Amino acid sequence: MNRMTASYATLGLLLLATVFIGGQCGGESGDTPGVTDKTIKVGNTNPYSGPASSYGTIGRAIEGYFKMVNEQGGINGRQIEFITYDDGYSPPKTVEQIRRLVEQDEVAFLFQTLGTPTNTAIWEYVNQKKVPHLFVATGATKWGDPQGHPWTIGFQPNYQTESKIYATYILEQFPNAKIGILYQNDDYGKDYLLGFKDGLGEAGQRMIVAEVSYEVTDPTIDSQIVSLKGSGADVFFNISIPKFAAQSIRKISEIGWKPVHFLNNVSQSVAAVMKPAGLKRSKGIISTRFFKDPSDPEWADDPAVIEWRKWIGEYYPDGNPDEPFNAYAYIVSQLLHHVIEKCGDNLSRENIMAEAANIKDLELSMLLPGMRINTSSTDFYPIEQMQLMKFDGERWRAMGGLIDTSSS
Amino acid sequence: MEQATQLDSSGVQAALTAKRRRTAGLAALVALACVLPFVMSDYRNFQFSLVYIYAIALLGLNILTGYSGQISLGHGAFFAMGSYTTAILIKDYGVGYGWTIPLAGVICLVVGFLFGLPAVRLEGLYLAMATLALALALPQILKHFEDWTGGVQGIVIAKPGAPFGLPLSPDQWLYFLSLAIMLAAFFTGWNLLRGRVGRALVALRDHHLAAEAMGINTTLYKSLAFGVSAMYTGIAGALAAVVVQFVAPDSFQLFLSITFLVGVVIGGLASISGAIYGAFFIQFVPTYMQDISKAAPWAVYGILMIAFMYAMPIGIAGFVRLTITRFSRKAEEPDRGA
What we know:
The complex is a heterodimer of chains A (about 400) and B (about 350). Chain A has about 400 residues and is an alpha/beta fold. Chain A contains 13 helices and 11 strands. Chain A has helices spanning about 5-20, 55-70, 90-105, 115-130, 160-175, 185-200, 205, 220-230, 240-255, 270-275, 305-315, 325-345, 350-355; strands at about 40-45, 80-85, 110, 135, 180-185, 210-215, 235-240, 260-265, 285-290, 385-390, 395-405. Chain A has a 4-stranded parallel β-sheet with strand order 2-1-3-4, sandwiched between helices. Chain A has a 4-stranded parallel β-sheet with strand order 6-5-7-8, sandwiched between helices. In chain A, strands 9-10-11 form a 3-stranded antiparallel β-sheet, covered by helices on one side. Chain A is globular, with a radius of gyration of 24 Å. Helix content of chain B is about 80%, strand content about 0%. In chain B, strands 1-2 form a two-stranded antiparallel sheet. Chain B is globular and about 65 Å long. The two termini of chain B are about 20 Å apart. In chain B, helix 11 crosses helix 12 (about 270-290). The chains are: A alpha/beta (about 400), B mainly alpha (about 350). Chains A and B meet through helix 1, helix 3 and helix 4 of A and helix 1, helix 2, strand 2, helix 12 and helix 14 of B.
């Protein structure tokens, strides 16, 4: 055999060999792919590697939750087979892994796929394929679009919802405030800003005296804080990620500015923001929450948190019991549990989607007391309640009751 | 020496049959590649389209790194440029996707050549640093021009169906499109590299003073290599945008550039078929290493990389070449004895 021919043959063999890598399609019986009398296949992608890998714990915690459910006999007698792949927070990889889940593993539906750019990449695909795309893990506002994308539904309160809460509170408590805003110059910052201005309505024209932005690559935001002080603002809305939130708290105190400080809940971590900035300096900051932070002493004796700690110890022992993401994962898993339970034996994709969009006053143990989840065929935003909280120099304290933004 | 007289008749004959066999081998391989999409699932067709796209990009990088000996850590940036050219032209100007691919190639050729002019004065690691800067900067530049690029949200592209009423699914059509462009890219690449230009590049890589003494214009050839290399990678990026139907800055992080370099080295430096082997590696290993170890998939990747480098120090293509030579020698020996 001639050398060149042999090398073509090698390439040909490689082509053929890779056709079978990872297994070919398994022929399923039944009407819905991924559903049998004994099992339901659920697909997920998470960034277990790459720049956003700190979120990866959410996927592992969901795995742990369904391990518990399966040991207890599954849901309506069916075991949950949770298949999760790493996409490294890279959209092309997400597309590939989602297609692997839908076309090759033949999952019944997708659940909690994480990230805004990654979910954007598969948004059209899942809606064309009519695969339920349940409770996506992102705070962007666009996921509640039952008209244009009837197969995708959100989960957590979105950025606009949160900033409307601050706006409403400011209108009530400080009707004559002069507001200064700092925001990160990307879609996350702009989503917050838009919601805030919507919430203020016409009064915003008069109340907002300064709006400055920073780039996520900026080394410091000192000059932005100085110019905000110079504008004469007495209320400060701070839309920044933890690193810059800590810097701004420090700088505000250094230059002796004393505004009422509203901080987006992206940066509510005591360990990552308040401690580095200085606990005393952080006193009086206002933010929001929607679930029980397991590291907060306020909930130390709460039965739900005690049960949650027992669960994490047994089913996800590698997980950090002080990590709010693990509580978040538990809540969203409970929500899915509820939806599948309600589907009963009608596990068609249409019905799974219909039940996901038909939740009435559902209470989950790790959500704040009194919170209820509601969805409908026109409301694809499951969680729309939050509670304001204030930092007392040591930890967050609840401030007033729950605020519902769904009706406003 | 004694055989010299025989060469006239049987030698020419042998060369002719060898050439015929080679053509037949290539034809069989292409035929196989054309049959596959009809027996594979659409998901597989999508994966193979990506393999062909990566092969084009790796060939581009191989022209620069393998043949002309310049290290680039920034080819992810050219890939991104190609992708965004296509996405923006489709979204804002309604250009047909077929036209955007050559346009992306031309834009990357020009940008690559211009970037190459000053960059080629840098040698080795310093050039690697300069290109690294390009790869680091581009995702942020993309976020800055939000009106065009859609910022962090990126741009969604509609999936094109098969034209001329061909009875193909969209994934099958994109498979054939990728395959055809890859074959064209490899054919032109092969023509370019086996002739004057290829020899000049290799000469510059191996001994650049001697090459200059022989009258090879260093700046021109090195910049040209940079430009052509960027063009191939840009075409691959454009095609990737159409096949993946989405572009966003997060798709083109630094890791992509490193992945390309890994593909070139694992596949085989200065080898045309190496680009294909490398493409298979970077497409399939990261996706399926999770099946081997859930806890530490990237450790599996690392171990595989070390294993490949240890067992095949000149890349998969080099390994295949050596093995085949060894076997064909063994096969020829009994003939000689007779």
